[in-house]
Amino acid sequence: MIIRPAYMKMLKTYRDVPLVKILAGIRRCGKSTILEMLRDDLLNSGIAADHIISMRYTSEELDEGMTDRDMYKGIKEQMTGEGRYYLLLDEVQEIDGWEKAVNSLLENADTDIYVTGSNSKLMSSEISSYLTGRYISIPVYTLSFAEYLDFRKSDSCSEKELLYRYLRLGGFPIVALGSFDERSAYQIVEGIYNSVIANDMMKRHNIMNFDLFSRVVKYIVENVGKTFSANAIARFLKSEGRSLSVEAVYNYLNWLEKAFVIYRCQRYDLQGKSVLKTQEKFYLADASLKYCIMGFNPKSVAAMLENIVYFELRRRGYEVYIGKNETKEIDFVAVQRDERMYVQVCRMLPEESDREVANLLEIRDHYPKYVVTLDEFAAGNINGVKIMYLADFLLSGAY
């Protein structure tokens, strides 16, 4: 088992803090394995094995009709001794009312509780009043490039070769651990995607027209990194002779977001210092989701560089926005408490450098400004704007 140190560090920070630790992310991004890592770490730190209770609530392993009361009773019956119990509860969203059971275990027993899940019931906006103010949300993403290098450290490939493999095949741990060719890797990712659609969307939201829904997904995938609106999607479908209301498009976008397939990036007005509600961008949970749907095309790599940088900033704990500076656009404004950085992303320099650097130089403040590029020979500094090779940028925040 390969340790993911960023998550272990975070879980150690919150160990024994009286909050439910909720790890949420797309299916197969590694949440269950993180719980296994946590179990091993607890054992290594001297916690008795019989005081660590691991439960898995996937639909395949769940007793039909299991209620939150059954969940509570099943866990409580295992707590037969004195002292604190560590509860590691996997895929809890499969139990209706799981929050009630978890809240009761938090209130009525000496527990430290960790839960995982893969859909909307683990989003903060969806958690009921039972846990309001009593949990910490820890987003789990597919592998960062630094983690990917750990997973592939037995390879004889160069870092550059591994970067291009990461760009092509993505960061799902199951793919990173194997020696799959491109076709096999995309088949695995397609299986993950279909599982999300079937379990977290089609059944849960009773989507009847799968073909129409798939066309909306394809539009989003084709336009990763571009600003668009629900109205734009509805108009596009109309031009193809299909009919879907703007409200239905909004629902599809929200459901995809709550299943952690896409992530919304809002625009931030640098002049008015406010978040704008229109013309957002959406990014895919993993670049391989685009390729399993559309097929890999080397020309599409440029569009997915933003996707990779966006998630690297998210992993580092930043809130990430698209910057609007009058008529100019900054790819990313990353904000974390009183810190801020500006990032432009482009495939190659120098042909794109003038525009990318000029946009950043128009921002009159002291915060760091970067141009991140796939051009490994372009590193340097232009009037305070740091030019960084993609691999160097991705590894600069590594744990």
Describe the SSE topology.
Layout: H1 5-13, E1 20-24, H2 31-44, E2 52-56, H3 68-76, E3 85-90, H4 98-108, E4 111-117, E5 135-139, H5 145-151, H6 159-169, H7 173-176, H8 182-205, H9 210-222, H10 230-239, H11 246-258, E6 262-269, E7 274-284, H12 287-294, H13 301-315, E8 319-325, E9 328-336, E10 339-346, H14 353-361, E11 369-373, E12 380-382, E13 385-389, H15 390-396
Parallel strand pairs: 1-4, 1-5, 2-3, 3-4, 6-8, 10-11, 11-13
Antiparallel strand pairs: 6-7, 8-9, 9-10, 12-13
Helix pairs in contact: 3-4, 8-12, 10-11
Polypeptide structure, described:
The two termini are 18 Å apart. α3 packs parallel to α4 (98-108) and α10 crosses α11 (246-258). This protein has an eight-stranded mixed sheet with strand order 7-6-8-9-10-11-13-12, with helices on both faces. The protein has helices at 5-13, 31-44, 68-76, 98-108, 145-151, 159-169, 173-176, 182-205, 210-222, 230-239, 246-258, 287-294, 301-315, 353-361, 390-396; strands at residues 20-24, 52-56, 85-90, 111-117, 135-139, 262-269, 274-284, 319-325, 328-336, 339-346, 369-373, 380-382, 385-389. The protein has 399 residues and is an alpha/beta fold. The chain has 15 helices and 13 strands. 41% of the residues lie in helices and 21% in strands. The protein folds into two domains: 5-139, Rossmann fold (3-Layer(aba) Sandwich), CATH 3.40.50; 145-396, no CATH class.
